Amino acid sequence: MKKLLLGDEAIAQGAIDAGLSGVYAYPGTPSTEITEYIQGSPIARERDIHSRWCTNEKTAMEAALGMSFMGKRAMVCMKHVGLNVCADPFVNSGMTGVNGGLVVVVADDPSMHSSQDEQDSRFYGKFALIPTFEPSSQQEAYEMMAAAFDYSEQQCLPVLMRVTTRMAHSRAVVEVKDVPRQENELNYNAVAANWVLLPANARRRNDKVVAQQEQLEEDAANSAYNVYFEGHDKTLGIIASGIAYNYVRENFPDGCPFPLLKVSQYPLPRRFVRRLMEECERVLVVEEGQPFIEEQVRGVYESATILGRLTGELPRTGELTPDCVSDSLGMPKSTHSGIPSIVVPRPPALCQGCGHRDVYTALNQVLEEYDNARVFGDIGCYTLGFLPPYRAIHSCVDMGASITMAKGAADAGQWPSVAVIGDSTFTHSGMTGLLDAVNENADITVIISDNLTTAMTGGQDSAGTNKFEAICLGLGVAPEHVRVVVPLPKNMPEITNIIREEINYHGVSVIIPRRECIQTFKRKAKENRKS
Amino acid sequence: MKVDIILCGVGGQGILSIATIIGEAAMNENLYIKQAEVHGMSQRGGDVQSNLRISSDPIASDLIPKGGADVIISMEPMEALRYLPYLSPEGWVITSSVPFVNIPNYPDQKDVNDALSTLSHVVSIDIERLSKDNGIPRSSNVILLGAAQHAIGIDYDKLEAAVRRVFARKGTEIVEANVKALAIGRDARRQ
Out of A16, A310, B63, B174, which could bridge B170 as a Cys pair, Cβ 3.0 to 4.6 Å? Predict the structure, then answer.
C-alpha cells in the first residue's frame, strides 16, 4: 500500500507496523507529528496503543523504559533539546538494557528553525554506547523502525533514531505493509540484576555494554543501510550520512564518479572508512548537523586529506542544502537572480486576539513604574514577547528556566524579579523550581500565562489544565498570593492592579492569566459548526 | 517529467492545502514526490514556504537547488520575490497581487509590482476579489492553483479530480466551490 507521508508520519507508521505498544512523548518541533499520527491512527486506537502526551521528556523516557521492562515495544519521541531533559534515563537505559524493543526518536533542528541550539543527537548515542540509526529517506525511515525494534531486542539495548528537520517535515510516497506485526506479549524476562543499577550491578553491565561495541560496529558494517558505492574517480572519496546523502546524489543525476560511503547506522563502520581513505587522496565528509563523523575520522587516518565542515568546504553551522554541497564538490555555480532589495523580513508574531498579548501589555504598563525590573521568559509562543511591540522579556534559555532564573536573580538582590511561563512549560519543568522559591520565600512574581494548551507546537493537550491553582497551593504558595485573571483588554485595570500588588508583596506570588488559545478556540468553533 | 515548485506565503494563508492537491494528483499519476514543509514557529504570521518536487524518476534532495524551480506559487506578492534566487531563468511566478501587511515596514506596493513586472513569466491575480465576487471566499488558494496549472505539468482534468478527492470528506458544497475556484483561476490566467 502506498501513502504520502511526512518523515515523522513514516516513522509513526513504521512503529505501528512493527508491533508498537506505546509511544511516550512531549510535543516539540520537528518531532510532534510522530505522536499525533499515532493518536489519529485507527489501528492504534483498535489496539489501544498508548499515545497520550507526557508531562515532559523525562517522564516519557522512563514510562517507555517501564513498558520495555515488561517485554513490550515502546517508542519515545522528542526534539533534540528534549534529549537533554531526559538525558539521565536515556544514558542509563544503555546501562539497564531493554527487554521489549525500545526506540528513542530524536528530531534535531539544524539552522534552528524552531529551536534554541543546533546540538547533534548522534553524540548522545555514542556517549551512551547506544546504536544509532539515521535514515536518508522517508521509505528508509519507515523500514528502519521495524529493523530498529528487532535490533533493540536482539542486542538488549535501546536504539537511537536520529532525524533532522528536513526528514521530519518532508513528505514522500512510502510503500507500507498491509498487515502490522502483532504486539509483544507481556513477559517477565527482565532480570532484576540488570535493572537495579547499584554500583556492583552497574559495573558488570558497563563492562558488558562496552564489550558489545565491537559487535555493534561489525553489525553497522554489515548493515543494509550502510553502503559503499564504488567510483572510478579516486581523486575524491565522499562520506555522506542521513539526508546529506541525498544532497550528494542530487548533484550527480547521472551517477557519482567518486567512491561514496553512505552512513545510516552507527557506530561508524571504520572498516569502510579505512578503505575509502586508502583508495582516495582526499575525503569529503558531508553530514547534517555537527562534524560528528568528521571529528572521528580526522587524525585517526592520516592517509587522506579530510575535508568538511571543519575545513571550510562546507559551512561550519546551519543545515546543508543542495547548493552548499554543490559548492563543496567544486561544481559550477548555477545562474540565478538575487532577492530584490525591497524585500524585508517577516518575523512571526503573537496572533491577533491572543491572551499573551494582554498579559504583556499589562506587565509592561506596571513595570514602567519600577527601575530596572527584569522579566525572565520561557519557551513557548510567549517568547515572541521579546520582539516589538512588546520587548517584554530579558531571557529565554530552556524549559522552566524562567522561575529558577527569577529566583536566582532575586537571590542576587534583584527586584522586581518576574517570571513569565506558559501552562504546559510550567508542568514540564517549572513546578520543581517553584518549590525551591517557596522553600526560601524568594521575592519573585510568577506569571503562568495559561491558554489551556501546548500552543507553540499546534495545540496539544497540556498536562496541568484545571490543576494550576491546586499545584501552586500544594507546593506551598500562600493562597492569597495565587491570583487568577482573564487576560482581555477590558480587564486591564484589574490585571495591572493585581500585578502591582503581587510585585509589591515580598515573597512568592503566582498570577494565572487564563484564556483559551485563540487558535484552538477557532478550531473548536469550526468543529462545532460542522457537527 | 520533472517539475520543481516553490509554494510560499504568510503563515496561515493555506499554502499547504495547495501542496496537498498537487501531491494527490501526482501520487495518482504514480509520480515521485518530495515535499518539504515548514512547521512550528514561522506559522505564527511569519514567512512560510514549501518545496514541492514531482518527477517520473526518483528524487534525491528534499530541497530545490537555487536556480532550479520551474514555478513559484505565492499567496502574497512580496513573498514571491523572496524566493527568486530559486527560480530558473525560464521559470514562472504565479502570485496573488494582494499584499498581506502585518509588518510596519512593508515596502511600497508599486515597488513590489515593478519588481514582479521585470520577470519574463509572471501571472499576478487578485485572488481575493475573484473569490469574493464568485461567492467562494474560502477558496482563493485554489484559484491561485488554477492559474498555475499550466506551469506544473499536470493535466487540468487530473488536477480537478484531485481537488474532488482532497475535499470529498468536507461535503459536496465545498467540493464544488473548489472545482469552481480552479476553473476561475485557469480562466483568469488566460485573460
Answer: B174
